[in-house]
Design goal:
This protein is α/β, with parallel strands linked by helices. The chain has a single domain (12-162, 205-238), classed as Rossmann fold (3-Layer(aba) Sandwich), CATH 3.40.50. Helices cover 44% and strands 21% of the residues. The protein is built from 9 helices and 7 strands; from the N terminus they run H-H-H-E-H-E-H-E-E-H-E-H-H-H-E-E. It has helices at 12-23, 27-34, 38-51, 67-72, 87-99, 138-148, 168-188, 193-203, 208-216; strands at 57-61, 79-84, 106-110, 123-129, 149-160, 220-227, 232-238. It has a 7-stranded mixed sheet with strand order 3-2-1-4-5-7-6, sandwiched between helices.
Amino acid sequence: MVVPYKDLNEGKKEQVARMFDNISGRYDQLNHLLSLGIDKLWRKKAIRHLERFKPSRILDVATGTGDFAIQASKIDQSSVIGVDISEGMLEAGRKKIQRLGLTERVRLENGDSENLQFEDNYFDAVIVAFGVRNFEDLDKGLKEINRVLKPGGRLVVLEISEPDKFPWKQLFDFYFKRILPITGKIISGDSHAYTYLPESVSAFPKGKAFLNRLANCGFEQATWERLTFGICAFYSAEKPY
């Protein structure tokens, strides 16, 4: 199992929470800088796709500082609950939501993706941006998402991926494994967070492998699409009626 702090005797869940607490103060700045702002376009594309299904009650799992939840709140007549295990990230997100005047539309709560504190068949849609690879038990987290979704509800996932074609693969590998860890360490002050990032991306089941995991966890009509030369993967699936 890939974890941020290999010298600590803690589970992945505890380590991920610790890591995001450590970098929460500079997370947004660093995230947009290291992705050159393209992450904002990926979120917009995902929400445009979701908008077609007209969800009114949306759950954002691993919400972080709430960027995806904020984007989802632009869907007409929607309300969004974001959950995350990092209180530091949630606090940064709450300040952002208050500054944007969205406290009536978006609420952030401390919550575990593998033990969601919501009743069965509660949400019209569940969204996750760059968070599923941080689940300690991926299948357990996906099954929990399936449980809280209404029949016919949609799951939308964005996750960092790896290009497989020349020259994007070689350029991505150099940037992701050489430049990003050094830059991330300097700006965030955490020497582990941006070493963990490429390691966790490499270990995550991608493309068809992730579609198979979705099917095994009760989802249907699962599809995926490469974005920006394969740097990001966009997944969509439905909970069957």
